[in-house]
Write a structure and sequence with these properties.
Four Helix Bundle (Hemerythrin (Met), subunit A); globular; mainly alpha; 178 residues
Amino acid sequence: MFILPKSNYIITLAFLVIMLLPSCRGCEEPQEETKKVITQEEEEIAPMVQEGQRPALERSEGIEESEELKGIMASASRHMKTLENALGEENWAIARDSSKILEDLIGRQCVNAYIKVNKDVSQDFVQISQRFNDAVLRLLVAEGYQDAPLALSQFKLMQEGCQECHKKYRKEQSAPGG
């Protein structure tokens, strides 16, 4: 069999790479075992984990994630107002920028933060999220065509999606009369 000279370099290089990589069959060099020092906090948490309770450490992470969700929603609220104004003025550049930001804030960050905070997410939540994302995509297309009636109708669908989601899944309900 005739091998071109350039091929010899490739074959040699491939051979060296294969020989230098550690094997996946457990033939790697033994690693020095390090003794884990268990802190008092870990000792207190261990029995709780074994009993299926959530330790306080995890609860504080949930609080941080909840605060993250609130921050995302506050930013999204500001961008919804900016988008609404831009659509009313037919300022397509600002409308498009706001739509893209909302696509990320609500369509990705908000949904992901909600899922982190709430481990059990219903199929209904997923469907509301998908309808919101569909409306954002149609809004972006309408903005590309500078079609004000279509853009406004998609913006209203986005708002309805937000309202439906908040009505069903928002943990903090406003006080009566407020």
